Amino acid sequence: ELGVLAGVEDEVSAEHHTYTDPADVIDFVSKTGVDSLAISIGTSHGANKFKPEQCTRNAEGILVPPELRFDILAEIEKELPGFPIVLHGSSSVPQEYVKIINTHGGALKDAVGIPEEQLRKAAKSAVCKINIDSDGRLAMTAAIRKIFVDQPAEFDPRKYLGPARDELKKLYMHKCESVLGSAGKA
């Protein structure tokens, strides 16, 4: 990964991000021998990718994150034509899952992610891999929390992990077919 993504992933956290400098990519790729390059263009780890003050609010009061830096991506593509680019920290943080989690005992205040239309745009470029792990975590957590609240006597993992797995599958099918442009390319 060239540049720094803000946010928290596992035990690694960064308060601020540093965009990838397109002038550094050729040197980095040639010295490391990597076969793909993760770049920083405004994505961020976790379900709280941006502080509220970094965002605007739409008419419904929902946080809208800043645009990804597609200008930096375009410069990197000029420097490394056809080279596989990766975006870490690109979960969309589906608000339906955030709502389910929060109405079933969760506390995901101001959770906001990368809008799907921006991911669609990235997927049409040299970006060949878009990491969306937090979305999967949210889908499973929402399903499990809902069952635990709606059916508090349930203790059989098959009864809550099965629906969580189904929700995860639904999410990834949507992402592959409608967002990431990866359906039918395996």
Outline:
By secondary structure, the protein is of the alpha/beta class.
Summarize the topology.
Blueprint: E1 7-9, E2 12-14, H1 25-32, E3 37-39, E4 56-57, E5 63-64, H2 70-79, E6 85-87, H3 95-103, H4 116-123, E7 127-130, H5 133-150, H6 157-179
Parallel strand pairs: 3-6, 6-7
Antiparallel strand pairs: 1-2, 4-5
What does this structure look like?
The mean pLDDT is 91. The chain contains six helices and seven strands; from the N terminus they run E-E-H-E-E-E-H-E-H-H-E-H-H. It is of the alpha/beta class and 186 residues long. Helix 3 (95-103) runs parallel beside helix 5 and helix 5 packs antiparallel against helix 6 (157-179). The strands form three sheets. The protein has a three-stranded parallel β-sheet, covered by helices on one side. Helix content is 41%, strand content 11%. Strand 1 and strand 2 (12-14) form a beta hairpin.
